[in-house]
Design goal:
alpha+beta; Methylamine Dehydrogenase, Chain H; Thrombin, subunit H; five-stranded mixed sheet; U3 small nucleolar RNA-associated protein 13 C-terminal domain-containing protein
C-alpha cells in the first residue's frame, strides 16, 4: 500500500555564488573566491560546495583580493570600507574606512603581502601598509577610472604600475611617491598587467586587440603585437608545462596565452608573434555582440596545473594544459530556472535549463557541471526518457533537439534536430514507452508529431527529424504537453484557457476541457486513473475526467498563477508550485493542502521528482534550485518516539503523585507543560496537613524557570472561578517569597501580570460582594433583636445598629465603627472585623419578649424563631468561612500588584 507523504525539508540548494568581478584561487588550489552581490563566496574546488561566505553589512562588494602569502582576504565594499579577513578561520581581523570618495574598483598586493594598493572611481590610488595599519601613499594623476594595477615582483624595486580608462599606463616609484613614467601605448581600455617572475618584463593587453611587451628596466615599450581579438587576459607560461608535440613548440622560446572576445585560448610565440595554437572553449550565442567579451578572465594555477577561464555568463571552466580539454565547469549564476529533469541510472544527474541558450547538466555526487551548446536562443522546455537515456529540448530558436546521455562516461551529445515551427517552441514531450516519437507545441499554435528513428550508438552524424503530423491545436500559445503512460493519447494546454486531449496516431481531437478563467500553464496524465491534472493562471488546480471531460475536483490555495503541477504517491497526492513562490502538497481524497513551503523568493517555474519520489526538486526565478527530501517516515518515527516518551513520563508522574513525592512530580509536570497536572499536584499539597507551609517549601526548591512556568499556569487557572483559590494561593506565596527585583528577571513576567490583573480584580470584587452580603445579614438581625415593647427603645436600637455597621458606598471594602475603637480597619484586618461583628451579634441577638396572654402561641412563635435563628447562624458561618479563607489571599495579591507593577 502506498504511503501518503506529509512533509518535506530542504536537503540541498544550488544557488548563485558568482555574479561579478574577478575570481581568486588560493595558493594551494583548494578554494575559489567569487564575488556575489553583498558577499564573497568561498567554493571548494573538489566538491563544488559552498563552504563559507564573507560579509558583514548589507553593502555590495566592489572588489576583493587574496594576499600572496595565502593568509588574508581583503574586501572592499560600496560604503568605502576595507575589511581584512583571516579566511581560514572565517575571522574578521580589522576594518577601516578609506579616504577614497567613491567605491574601490581595482586592488593589488605586493609579494610580501604588506602593501595594498586600491584604485577608485575618484581617479586616485592609495597604498596601505596592512601591517602598520596606515596609508603610505596617495597617488594622483590619472584622468580616468583605475582599471588595472600590479606591483613589480622584484622587491628591490618598489614599483607600482597602474592603468586607467584614459588609456594611459603610469609607473610609480614608491620610494619617492612620484610617477616616473607615463606612456600612452594602448588606444582602448587596458584590461590586464602581468609581470614575468624576474620583474624585468611586463605584458599589457587591452580591448584595442594588441599585446604590448614592456622593458621594465628602461621603462619603455619593447614590442607591440596585434592579435585581432579584444583581449581580457594574458598568461605568460613556461613551455615545460605545455605539450610540445600538440602545440608544436620550439625550444628556448617564450610563449604566452591570450583570452578574449572570441572565446578562444590562443598560444603566441613572443619572438615572432605567431599564434601556434588556438582552441575555442566558449561558444557565443546568436544574440551576443562581437564587441562584448566572451572570456572575462583567464589565469594559470601551478598547483592545479590547469587553466581557469571565466566566461561572460558567469561560468568557470577548468581546462588542462595538454590540449585545453575542459576538465570541470562551475555555473556561477543560473538566472531564472525554467525547467529541470532527472536523468541517468539512479537519477545520478539533473538537467537544468535557465533563460539561456545553454543547458546545464549536474552530476549530483560532485556537482560537476557539464554545459551543452547547440541552441541559439533561450531553451524553454525539456522532456526525458529515462530508459533510453534520451532527452528532448525546445527553444526560442524554433527548433527541437534530442540528446543522448552516455551513462558510462557521463558525456552528452546531440543526436537529432527537428525544425519546422515558425515561432518559439514552448513545449516538447518524448513518448513514454519506446521513445519512438516526439510531440512539440509552439507559439504558432501548432502541434507537431516527429518520428524518432532508432539511434545507434555507433552513429556519429546528427539526424534530422521529419514531422509526420501537424495540427492547429489552440488559438494561443501552447504551454505544455504530456503523453499518456500507454502513448495512445496526448494532452495539451494553452493560454486560450483550454486543455485538449488528442489521439496520438493521427492527432485527431477527442475532447476539450473548459473551466479555467485564465490561461492553463501545465497538464499531466494520472499514472493510475483516467483523468488529467491542470494548473492555471486563475490560481486553481483542476482534475478532469477523461470519460466526459468534466471537472471532478478543484483545488484552491495559491495566491498567484499555478505554473507546474504533478501527481505523486500513485496518483493520490499532488505537488504544485506557482508564481507566489510557494510549493504545496495536496491530498486528493480530502481536497486538503497538507503543507506549504515558501523557501523560494521568486516564481517557481520548474518541478520534478526522482523515480523513488523521495526527492523533489524545484527551480525558480531567484536563480536557486532546491532539493527537498521526503521526511514523512522520519517524522512519523519521531512522533511515535515522542508519544512513547510522553506515556512513560506520564506514568512516572502518576507514580510520583501516588508516592506523594510532590517536588519531583511538580518538576516533571512543568517539563511536560501540563498546567492542569500541576494544578492537581498543588491541590494535593494543600489537602495535606499544613498544606500552605508545605506548598511554600516546595515552591522554594524549584528553579527560577519552573517558578515562572507555574506563574504562567496560574494565569490560566485564575480565569476560572473553580481554580482561582489555588491560583491566588500560588500568586500570594510567590509574591511573598520573591522580591520585585527577582520577579522582574522572570522572562514572562509582563504578560503574566497583564493576565492576572483583570481576573484578580474581578475575584476581589466578588469577595467584597460576599462580605457585604454577610454584613447585611448581621446588621438586619441585630436590628431585629433589639426591638422590644418600648417604641423609643426600638428606635434607639435601630439607630445604634446603623451606627455599628456602615457599608461603604465605594464598594471597595466595609467599614465597621465600634464604640471601643475610633480606628478604621483595612482589607488586611478583615478577619478581626468578622470576629468583632460576631461578638456584637452574640451580645445583641436575643429572643424577643412576648406578652403572657397567649402562652401556647408564644411557645410556637418562639420555636419558629429558634429554627430561623439556627438556619441564619448556619448560613452566616458558611459565608464567614468562605470570606475568611479567601480574603487574606485577595488582599495580599492586591497589595503586591499595587506595588511597582
Amino acid at each position: 500500500m502506498t504511503q501518503l507523504k506529509s512533509s518535506f525539508k530542504v536537503d540541498t540548494k544550488l544557488q548563485a555564488f558568482y555574479t561579478e568581478g574577478k575570481i581568486q584561487i588560493d595558493k594551494n588550489g583548494d578554494f575559489m573566491f567569487c564575488g556575489c552581490g553583498q558577499k564573497v563566496q568561498m567554493i571548494d574546488i573538489k566538491s563544488s560546495n559552498l563552504v563559507a561566505s564573507f560579509s558583514k553589512e548589507e553593502e555590495i562588494v566592489t572588489n576583493f583580493i587574496l594576499s600572496p602569502d595565502n593568509e588574508y582576504l581583503i574586501v572592499a565594499s560600496q560604503n568605502l570600507l576595507l575589511r581584512q579577513w583571516h579566511w581560514r578561520e572565517r575571522k574578521l581581523v580589522r576594518s577601516w574606512r578609506t579616504s577614497h570618495r567613491t567605491p574601490i574598483v581595482s586592488m593589488a598586493m605586493d609579494k610580501t603581502s604588506t602593501l595594498l594598493a586600491t584604485g577608485s572611481t575618484d581617479l586616485t590610488i592609495k597604498v596601505w601598509d596592512i601591517v602598520q595599519e596606515h596609508c603610505t601613499h596617495d597617488l594622483t594623476g590619472h584622468k580616468g577610472v583605475i582599471c588595472a594595477m600590479e606591483f613589480n615582483p622584484d622587491k628591490s624595486r618598489l614599483q607600482l604600475v597602474s592603468a586607467s580608462d584614459d588609456n594611459l599606463i603610469r609607473i610609480w616609484d614608491l620610494m619617492t611617491s612620484t610617477c616616473v613614467s607615463e606612456i600612452s601605448a594602448h588606444y582602448s581600455t587596458v584590461t590586464s598587467l602581468i609581470f614575468t617572475p624576474d620583474g624585468n618584463t611586463m605584458y599589457s593587453t587591452g580591448r584595442d586587440s594588441v599585446v604590448i611587451t614592456w622593458n621594465m628596466v628602461e621603462l619603455k615599450v619593447s614590442k607591440t603585437l596585434p592579435v585581432f581579438e579584444r583581449l581580457e587576459s594574458i598568461i605568460p607560461v613556461n613551455p615545460d608545462i605545455l605539450d610540445y608535440d600538440i602545440f608544436k613548440l620550439q625550444d628556448h622560446s617564450t610563449y604566452y596565452i591570450t583570452a578574449g572576445n572570441k572565446g578562444n585560448l590562443s598560444i603566441y610565440q613572443h619572438d615572432n608573434g605567431k599564434c601556434v595554437y588556438s582552441k575555442k572553449l566558449v561558444t557565443v550565442d546568436g544574440g551576443k555582440s562581437e564587441d562584448e567579451q566572451v572570456i572575462t578572465q583567464a589565469l594559470y594555477h601551478p598547483i592545479l596545473k590547469q587553466f581557469i577561464v571565466v566566461t561572460y555568463d558567469h561560468n568557470i571552466i577548468l581546462a588542462d594544459t595538454q590540449d585545453f580539454t575542459i576538465q570541470k565547469q562551475f555555473a556561477g549564476y543560473m538566472d531564472e530556472v525554467l525547467d529541470l529533469q532527472f536523468i541517468g541510472k539512479d537519477d545520478s544527474h539533473i538537467i537544468v535549463i535557465t533563460n539561456s541558450e545553454k543547458i546545464k547538466v549536474y552530476e549530483r555526487s560532485s556537482w560537476k557541471c557539464q554545459i551543452l551548446t547547440g541552441h541559439t536562443d533561450i531553451v524553454l522546455n525539456i522532456s526525458v526518457h529515462k530508459q533510453s537515456a534520451l532527452f528532448a529540448s525546445s527553444a526560442k530558436d524554433s527548433t527541437i533537439r534530442v540528446w543522448k546521455f552516455d551513462e558510462d562516461i557521463g558525456n552528452i551529445t546531440c543526436v537529432a534536430i527537428a525544425s519546422g515551427h515558425i515561432q518559439a517552441v514552448g513545449a516538447v514531450c518524448l513518448a513514454k514507452t519506446k521513445a519512438d516519437f516526439v510531440i512539440s507545441g509552439s507559439e504558432d499554435n501548432t502541434l507537431k508529431k516527429w518520428e524518432l528513428p532508432a539511434l545507434d550508438e555507433s552513429r556519429k552524424d546528427v539526424v534530422t527529424l521529419k514531422a509526420v503530423a501537424t495540427d492547429i491545436a489552440h488559438e494561443k500559445d501552447i504551454n505544455f504537453i504530456d503523453i499518456s503512460p500507454n502513448d495512445k493519447f496526448i494532452a495539451t494546454c494553452s493560454l486560450d484557457k483550454t486543455a485538449k486531449i488528442w489521439r496520438e496516431s493521427d492527432l485527431s481531437l477527442l475532447g476539450v476541457m473548459r473551466g479555467h478563467r485564465r490561461g492553463v500553464w501545465c497538464i499531466q496524465f494520472s499514472p493510475v486513473d483516467q483523468c488529467v491534472l491542470t494548473g492555471s493562471a486563475d490560481s486553481t488546480i483542476k482534475i478532469w475526467s477523461l470519460q466526459d471531460f468534466s471537472c471532478v475536483k478543484t483545488f484552491e490555495g495559491h495566491s498567484a498563477s499555478v505554473l507546474r503541477t504533478m501527481f505523486i504517491s500513485n496518483g493520490m497526492q499532488i505537488l504544485s508550485c506557482g508564481a507566489d513562490g510557494v510549493l504545496k502538497l495536496w491530498t486528493i481524497k480530502t481536497n486538503e493542502c497538507i503543507k506549504s513551503y515558501d523557501d523560494h523568493n521568486g516564481k517557481i517555474w520548474a518541478l520534478t521528482t526522482n523515480t523513488a519520489e523521495n526527492t523533489v526538486v524545484t527551480g525558480a526565478a531567484d536563480s536557486t534550485v532546491i532539493f527537498w527530501k521526503d521526511v514523512t517516515e522520519e517524522e512519523r518515527e519521531e512522533t511515535l518516539k515522542i508519544q512513547e516518551d510522553l506515556i512513560l513520563k506520564e506514568q512516572q508522574l502518576s507514580n510520583l503523585i501516588q508516592k506523594k513525592k510532590y517536588l519531583k512530580a511538580l518538576s516533571l509536570a512543568i517539563t511536560l507543560e501540563q498546567p492542569y497536572k500541576v494544578l492537581s499536584i498543588i491541590k494535593a499539597i494543600l489537602k495535606e496537613n499544613e498544606g500552605i507551609r508545605e506548598l511554600e517549601i516546595t515552591l522554594s526548591k524549584l528553579q527560577m524557570y519552573q517558578v515562572d512556568a507555574i506563574l504562567r499556569f496560574a494565569v490560566t487557572w485564575n480565569t476560572n472561578s473553580k481554580h482561582c483559590q489555588e491560583a491566588q494561593f500560588i500568586i500570594g506565596v510567590i509574591f511573598n517569597s520573591f522580591s520585585p527585583n527577582q520577579l522582574i528577571e522572570f522572562p514572562n513576567i509582563q504578560s503574566t501580570l497583564e493576565g492576572l490583573l483583570s481576573y484578580t480584580d474581578r475575584h476581589f470584587k466578588r469577595m467584597n460582594r460576599l462580605l457585604q452580603q454577610s454584613m447585611f445579614v448581621d446588621y438586619t438581625w441585630t436590628c431585629m433583636g433589639r426591638i422590644d415593647d418600648n417604641p423609643s427603645q426600638s428606635i434607639e436600637a435601630m439607630e445604634e445598629g446603623e451606627s455599628d455597621f456602615v457599608i461603604s458606598r465605594k464598594g471597595s471594602h466595609i467599614e465597621a465603627n465600634h464604640n471601643n475603637s475610633d480606628s478604621e480597619s483595612d482589607g488586611s484586618d478583615s478577619e478581626n472585623e468578622l470576629d468583632d461583628m460576631s461578638r456584637v451579634k452574640k451580645d445583641t441577638v436575643k429572643t424577643p419578649h412576648k406578652p403572657d396572654s397567649d402562652s401556647d402561641s408564644s411557645s410556637e412563635e418562639s420555636d419558629m424563631e429558634v429554627t430561623d435563628l439556627n438556619k441564619k447562624s448556619k448560613f452566616q458561618k458558611e459565608v464567614k468561612n468562605t470570606v475568611k479563607e479567601n480574603s487574606p489571599i485577595v488582599h495580599v495579591t492586591r497589595n503586591m500588584l499595587k506595588k511597582q507593577w
